[in-house]
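Lab notebook, bench 4. The sequencing result for the construct came back, and we need a structural model before the next group meeting so we can plan mutations. Quick request posted to the team channel:

Model the 3D structure of this chain.
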Amino acid sequence: MMHPPTHAPVRRLLGSAPFGTTPTGQAVDQIEITNAGGIRLSVLSYGGVIRTIHVPDRDGTFADVALGYDTLEGYLSDTAYLGAIVGRVANRVAAGRMTVDGRELTLAQNADGNHLHGGVRGFDKAVWSMQRFERDGAAGVVLTHVSPDGDEGYPGTLRAEVTYTLDDADQLRVDYVATADAVTPVNLTQHSYFNLHGAGHGDVLDHELTLAASRFTPVNDAFIPTGELRAVQGTPLDFTSPHVIGERIGADDEQLRSALGYDHNFVIDRSEENGLALAARLYEPRSGRGVDVYTTEPGIQFYSGNFLDGRAIGKGAQPYRYRTGLALETQHFPDAPNHPEFPSIVLRPGAEYRSSTIYHFVVRP
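Done. Here's the predicted structure in token form:
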């Protein structure tokens, strides 16, 4: 297993500023953080959104590589989950139904009759409490949210905490913790879209991707997993060695047709059951910018921005068009409660849900 680089000391907080007010009168704040190398991150209390990530290229020129919006209004109308925390359950649940401990749950249906990313008003639409910190040689923000019993159909009151930490080793670490007072499913993820040219500057089809995954979970035409763990070998979904994303995205393959491109959960190859493991390496050759993704999760969803259609007007008044960003969402497998063969996402009272992911920003020759 490849281990992530060790943490280096100390970072700086740039401060907190108002970002707007929701229609219900809730104030939304933004906190900015930078590290010794100049990498700069901004976080919103609305949806726990990572709004900007400024990183250098091989010549030292910085660009914002995260898709997002200049104003709160953009996030209020967003349907692509740009930069947000999603939950209680990320990804899809077939027909919004699942059975947990013999109890049938009916969740909100918000995606062609299925449940997607927590429902109509999931965690991406919540205003989180947000506190900044600088301790133990790093700085960041702690976001907390209480999801009440019955929220989008989920049982029990869930208390969630998500911590973003930026360090001088150019790592953004995301730590998730949740507890509940009743049995409930939980599967949180971070839904940032990356374009390593810089957000709004072309598509991502020339990005080079490696996934530490020799299997994936194939889907049907409704994007629901069939339950199979299929080998990627011999398919256009084989990223076990580096491939340019646009190289095979238009191949005559039933999985690419079903998902309209890449929108699949990949099963991370692990030498150890627990702990951080390398999941993905993304690289843009022209700038030299890259990001390596490590996670404790068993899966990672690679989504190639197939539904970006230009209607979302992003930062700098740039429309986000077809495949101008991609997401690498660390997660448990989609529709897990309806597939007993998948790792469980059930959280019980007295237990803690814990998950960690590191995005290590690098510059390659």
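The two ends are 24 Å apart (CA to CA).
Will bring this to the meeting.
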